[in-house]
Input
Amino acid sequence: MSEITPEQVRTALDAVSDPALERSILKSGQVGDIDIDESRIRVEVALISPGFPMQGKLDQDIRAALEPFGRAVQIEWGLKVPRKPPRQDLDRMPSVKNVIAVAAGKGGVGKSTVAVNMALALQRLGAKVGILDADIYGPSVPHMMGKPSRQADKSTSGDRIVPALHRGIPVMSIDFFVESGRAVIWRGPMIHKLLQQFLEDVEWGELDYLIVDMPPGTGDAQLSLGQLIPITGGLIVTTPQEIALLDVRKAVDMFDKLEIPVVGVIENMSHYVCPACGHHDRIFASGGGKRLAEELEVDLLGQLPIDHRVSHGGETGTPVIIASPDGQHAEVILSTAARVALAASKMSGTGPRRSSLLRTV
Output
């Protein structure tokens, strides 16, 4: 059998395009070590997002490209989430690759629940994740995540903040620094200063994704975050009924003015599945999330059903993806998280596709 060199294998792989980036996996730096013996070719390939939905297609294309060598192909998959370097004056978090802002036009649509379960799902899929609770007036993330294994504190040097650690995820929130039950009555400049400190002075560590739970509406916190850091994209959470979409459109308008692209739309409380008979009931009307996604020309990334275990998980500090890891709701959250991560990685890898909402409504 003729000798095969790693250079020949790399040349063959240069013809394989990542189906999401539409770019050669060799030129995008996704090909790692190559090992060749008399019976097989072993190649390391990094996926651009956790739970990569197109892995099967990429696997098929790699094997087809290496088939002429006449040896068995062993692919060892890794993860290499892309990061688009920001302007130097905005590079406040060099160890964080992507910032995803989870937003809603109004309260009560399950935005924080989605943010928490999304972060845990991305962690379960193999990503390094952190959560910033940017809801200054109504922080809820620490309660939803349960008792921390490490409290937020000052670093040993005293000039940095060590985030709390909940279920292996670093979390930062105003809730750690105010007395329980006390209201936070702050004006815009104070909120701006606090968020800047949470971004610049916190030891986040190496993260693939920082999930930011935004406050509802279009206020000071949203404006400050948009000015302080380059946000990869905004994830819009809505419920199906039209009245919820009226406020969501304002949130999207805000993202557009801040030049933050929309990653996609998640429709929460999409439907109810009867546990006895399996019947689907559209309690809050239907089609709202799909209509919004079509207006924005982005994907409807997931439709999460109503389930009492979701609200119970938030109340008890055990999110549903932890409490029922093999349940239907966890399955939906995991697939949705994979699509969110892919959309963010495509933006970082190829550049954002701006929303067209302002031109269509």
